[in-house]
Amino acid sequence: MRSSHRFFTRLAPIVLFGLSLFLLAGCAGNSGSAADQTTTEPSVEAPSGGSDGGTSDAGIDDVAQDANDAQAADDDRVSVDIADFLFSPAEIRIKAGTIVVWTNKDGAPHQVHADDDAYQLSVISQGAQSEQVFSAPGTYTYHCHLHPNMKATVIVE
Q1: Residue 123 has what DSSP assignment?
Q2: Which residue, 102, 105, 115, 116, could crosslink 83 as a Cys pair with Cβ 3.0–4.6 Å?
Q3: Is residue 122 part of a domain?
Q4: Which residue has better confidence, 44 or 121?
């Protein structure tokens, strides 16, 4: 019994020392990533090939381009509201490739249906949206399949 007691008293400091090193190494490894996660300033990366460490104005140009791209994406989408049993606006002019997004703001369901049967969207519940891409130039009239008196037009240029 005495020999096992000596063994544990000699082994305990070594185990504690090893455990301390392990815990310190774990804390040191987390401190870098925690600092990265709490950074409040946005980071802007320089374009590849830049050697100035990201201090050039090229990174700022990238941010401006991203904003322009987001605006262009918005320009490729046009919204039509469905409210008071009307499509609003009742006529839209868009460029080819534009996505028309219908949002139902009525309490009743609605369904967008092309007058020439070229497309029929699924029923749009209150608060929901449905969309259609118009790729080819032309005039496209449509109505609500559930409420045929609701009519509107998409003009693709």
Answers
A1: P
A2: 105
A3: yes
A4: 121
Q: At residue 55, what is the residue type? A: T
**Contacts of 66 by beta carbon, 8 Å cutoff, 6+ apart:** none
d(CA 156, CA 136): 7
Q: Domain for residue 17, yes or no?
A: no
Q: Which domain holds residue 90?
A: 77-156
pLDDT, tens only, 4-56: 556 556 655 665 565 554 444 444 444 443 333 322 222 222 223 333 334 33
- Is 30 within a domain? no
**SS3 call for 9:** helix
Residue 94 DSSP code: E
pLDDT band at 97 (very low <50, low <70, confident <90, very high): very high
Task: Give the angle 22-23-24 at the CA atoms, nearest 5°.
Answer: 95
State the pLDDT at residue 132: 97
Q: How many domains does the chain have?
A: 1
CATH number for position 133: 2.60.40.420
